[in-house]
Amino acid sequence: MVLDITFTVIGSLLILSLIPLYIYRKEIYRKFSKAGDTKTLINDLKSYLSANCPKIKFDYNVLKKFEKESDIRVKQTLIVEELIKQFAYFQYEMNTQKSVPHNMLWSSYDQNSKLLKDNKLPKDWTQRKKTAWVRDEGKCDRCGCKTELSKTNALLVKQMKDGGGFNLENIVILCNDCSRIIKSSNLEKTRKDLNLLDKLMGKIFF
């Protein structure tokens, strides 16, 4: 009887120890599979970028130029850096945005849409940003990623010095990375500090 209980306990412990291996079997396989490292990485990157940057058309054919690189670590890093370069240099132009239904506006909307003499943001700027974010379904206008309101940036399509106002049609929603790219005067430096770079580098396995 005692022996049966011992076997039962040991068997249960073995099963419990195998559960994490089953749950993370894909990640474990990728970590220890040498032959398919680069191919698996590229598939992972394609899947991630298509889901999180749907508006940007990446050219995966250029990755072939790294095929002769023998060092797997260097090869994987070069692949990620190439995709980040494409992300940073993607051609984008801010355009006038669509309007929202009138019932989404508030009483002071029209009055506060006009340019202020001191170039300050209107008192209801936070509300305008949120309304624009809701209008765009929480997606970045440049890359198409879905982002939280607190992690978005609201920029003016037509700048105040050029006569632009604070009307919603002149407000574009961008993620942090795209906003930094739009404002950057040195893309080579900026692309090395993007959040996307950290996320893609995290998918590298060696």
Layout of helices and strands:
Layout: H1 2-23, H2 25-32, H3 37-52, H4 72-88, H5 109-112, H6 125-135, E1 152-156, E2 171-175, H7 176-183, H8 187-190, H9 195-201
Antiparallel strand pairs: 1-2
Helix pairs in contact: 3-4, 4-9
Description:
47% of the residues lie in helices and 5% in strands. The longest helix has 22 residues, at 2-23. Among the domains are: 1-32; 102-183, His-Me finger endonuclease fold (3-Layer(aba) Sandwich). The radius of gyration is 24 Å and the shape is flat. The protein is mostly helical. The chain has a two-stranded antiparallel ribbon with strand order 1-2.
Count of extended strands? 2
Main CATH class of the domain at 102-183 = Alpha Beta
Strand order of the largest sheet: 1-2
Average of per-residue pLDDT values: 88
CATH architecture of the domain at 102-183: 3-Layer(aba) Sandwich
- Classify the helix fraction into a percent range: 40-55%
Order of helices and strands: HHHHHHEEHHH
Strand content: under 5%
Specify the structural class.
mainly alpha
Low-confidence stretches: none
Distance between the termini: 48 Å
Q: What sort of overall outline do the alpha carbons produce when their principal axes are compared?
A: flat
Kindly report the CATH topology of the domain at 102-183: His-Me finger endonuclease fold
Rg on CA atoms, Å: 24 Å
